[in-house]
Amino acid sequence: MIPLSTRMRPETVDEFVGQRHFMYKESLLYNAIKNKTFDSAIFYGPSGTGKTTLARLIVREMDADFHELNASATGIKELKEIIDKAKLKFFGMQKETTYIYVDEFHRWNKLQQDSLLKALEEGVLRFIGSTTENPYFAVNNAILSRVGSIYEFKRLEKDDIYQILIGALNNSERGLGKLKLDWDDDAIHMLADMSSGDARIALDALGFISENLKKDVRIDKVIIGEAMQRQTTFYDRGEDKYNLLSALQKSVRGSDPDAAIHYLARLLEGGADIQMIGRRLMVMASEDVGMAYPSAISIVTGCVQASLMIGLPEAKINLAHATILLASCPKSNSAVNAIETATEDLRKKNIDDVPDHLKDSHYSGARKRGLGVGYKYPHTYGGYVKQQYLPNNLYQEGVRYYLPTENGKEGAFKKFLESLKQEK
Fold first, then answer.
1. How far apart, in whole angstroms, are the C-alpha atoms of residue 340 and residue 401?
2. Does the predicted TM-score (pTM) go above 0.85?
C-alpha cells in the first residue's frame, strides 16, 4: 500500500504547507514559480519538511521535462545520459529546458557535482538539489555560484503538522476520509507535537493507526502513544513539559547536575522531542553560562546537532552530556544583561548618531564629508588605542552595558578590560 505521506503530497503550490519565511503567496519564490521564471536552487534542511514535495510542484508548474535522481543510487553515467538528451531538446527544434532534481545531493563527490557545471552554464539544465547537510560545506563552490538561490527548510511548526493531519483525516480522495474515523482533537495535536517537525513521520504514523485500528475505536492519546512508541506522561497536562523545562534550566543555573539530569530524564520519558530540549539547552549556554565559559555554546550546539543526527534513544546521551556540562560550569548572565540593557536604552532614550570617525569611508566623497577622519586603527598601536566608540550622549554619560563577573573564564576578560582603562 502507498504510504499516507506519499498519497497526501500537495498537488499544487497553493496547497504547500510550511516554510512561510520564503514560501507564501506573492513571495519572490512563489511569484517565480507562477511566472515560470524559476531557475535553479538548492533546498537545505531536515527530512520531512517538504524539499522533495516543493521541487516536484515547481517542475509541474514549469511544465518542463523532469528527471528525479537520488545521489546515493545514481552516478555520472546516468547523469550524462540525461544531459545528452537535454542538449538535444535545448539546442534542437524544441528549445526546451530540462529540470533535474537530485535528492541527497551532498552524497555526490566533487567530480560528480562538477559534471553538472557545463550544462548549468549553457542553460541546458535547470537544477534543484536537496540536502540535509549545510550546502556551504557539502556542495562545491562552483555549483553554489551558478545556482545562486539557497532555501533553508526548517522543521515544521506543530500547527502546520496539525493542519496536514486534519487534511489527511478529512480527504476522501487521497486520505482517510472514506474510513470515517473518529478522533480526539487533543490526540491529533499530540501526534503533531511528537513528530519533531517531520510531516512524513506524522502522516505515516496516522496511516499505520488507520490500517490497524479496530472498528469503531476512537483515536485518542493512548493510541497515539502506542503508535509512536513513546510514553505520554505529561501530554495529559499540557503545562507539565514547560514546568519540567523550567526546572531543568533553574537546576542548571543553580549548578546542580543531579537535579538537572533528573529533569532531563523526566522530559525524555514523558515524550519531549529532541528539538524542544535542545533549543532550551542552547539558550542556557548563553543566558546562564555565557562569558564564564564561552566555549559552552559550541559544545552544547555540537551535542544537540549530534542528538538530532543520531535520534532517540541514543540521543539522550548527547543531551545528558550537554546538560551535565552546563550544570557544572561557572555561571554568568552578563551577556543577557548587556543586550537587554542596551535594547532598553534604544527604546527609551534619544540616541545620538554613530560618531563620524567610525562611519564607513570606503566610497568616493566620504572623506570630504568628514567620515572616517580621525579613526585610529587599533592594530597599528599594538592591538589597542583609546578612542570613542559609543554615540556622543552615551559616551558622555559613561554608559556601560557589559559588566563582567570574576566567574570562570570571564575573570580573565574582566582583568584584560580593566587593564585597558589604565592605558593612556
1. 9
2. no
